Amino acid sequence: MQWIKETFGSYKPIIAMCHLRALPGDPYFDLGGGMDKVVELARQDLHGLQDGGVDAVMFSNEFSLPYLTKVRPETVASMARVIGELRSEIKIPFGVNVLWDPIASIDLAVATGAKFIREIMTGVYASDFGLWNTNVGETVRHKMELGAKDLKMLFNIVPEASKYLADRDIVDIAKSTVFNNRPDALCVSGLTAGAETDSGVLTRVKQAVPETAVFCNTGCRLETIERQLSIADGAVVGTTFKVDGKFDNLVDPVRVKAFMEKVKSFRGQHQKFK
């Protein structure tokens, strides 16, 4: 898993979420503030995360609630504008996640120069968004057709607000996902953004696919991150970096710095890179 070090420049990296506010076409888009406000708030969050010492940042349309499983063109265009305006200010590796559309995520990554995407790329689910299907063969072929062979693919195998349509054990899912799809990493999540990932589930997945990177995908907190990183190869962190640890708020630089100080202390005690 040398690719982790090469991509993020760190052992057990922390990928911080830069949650974009509702965009044009979204039900809760701020017509008064417009795209200028979306860009400015994203800029504020980006600098709070970078200055706090995170290893990478991932831009997502987190406030495009309720989500679509096939997004509209205006969503990708709006996200590209935000990243384009901030591009010269991004000093760390970055990725993108267009919820919940892997094809759109790849398109955005290629357009902006992102190093990785995270998405639901496999499985069929009963979800809050209706019957949720995927086509990983089409997704990976699309990536290769666009010449993005080096784009890292983080497969979320425990989608939020949904359940596998068939009754499958998480170990079986992890093993078959790795065998059939060759993901760069598997992401293990809780029920929703900010909901803690079950350490038992995280352990079972990592033990099932020891040669594949496994990231803790939701609910990482100051008091739990050492335990989670003792199992996982990295973590995706969003809500805990926000003011009062609340999803709707902006990033709190003080919380980011305190969190990353603990992470760096942990990494200092576990230097061997696997």
TrEMBL record:
Pfam families assigned to the protein according to its UniProt record, in alphabetical order: BtpA
InterPro entries from the UniProt entry: BtpA, RibuloseP-bd_barrel
Domain of life: Bacteria
Listed SUPFAM superfamilies: Ribulose-phoshate binding barrel
Family membership noted in the UniProt record: Belongs to the BtpA family.
NCBIfam families: thylakoid_BtpA
PANTHER family per record: SGC REGION PROTEIN SGCQ-RELATED (PTHR21381:SF3), ZGC:162297 (PTHR21381)
Name recorded for this polypeptide: SgcQ protein
